[in-house]
Amino acid sequence: MFRIISIDEEFNMNLILNDNITNLAFGSSNDYDDSYIKKWLNKTSDVYSGIFETSFSKNNQKSIKNIRLLSVNEYNASNDNGTYLKTDKSYFTMDKTDNNVAIVTDEGNLDSSSPSSILGVRPVVTLSSDISFYW
Known about the structure:
Blueprint: E1 2-7, E2 13-17, E3 22-25, H1 36-41, H2 51-56, E4 64-68, H3 72-79, E5 91-97, E6 100-104, E7 110-113, E8 118-121, E9 124-127
Antiparallel strand pairs: 1-2, 2-9, 3-8, 4-9, 5-6, 6-7
């Protein structure tokens, strides 16, 4: 199950998975663009990339604009109204902190952790505004 995080100015919808889908190490550095998680989420030319995208988008390829992790700004924005993003499991965000990666702890606090730590992955999927929903 997904939850809506936001709808942007172009009416694209940002959704987050309700819980962690897996646990992975972030990568060898704190840069999201070079992370193992980004490669696991998104299809690239690398072997074994896009595990999540391939399984999620079989029937929705044209509807998906982006797959990523939650940002600290998105987490903070949700916290203003009491957050639904708190779970009882820690998970990575896509943001750097010095030599570490920003995380959401199992208590719902922002903290940081080494990129080599193995923590939860909670994908954010951006759906195109031209998607149709049927009831």
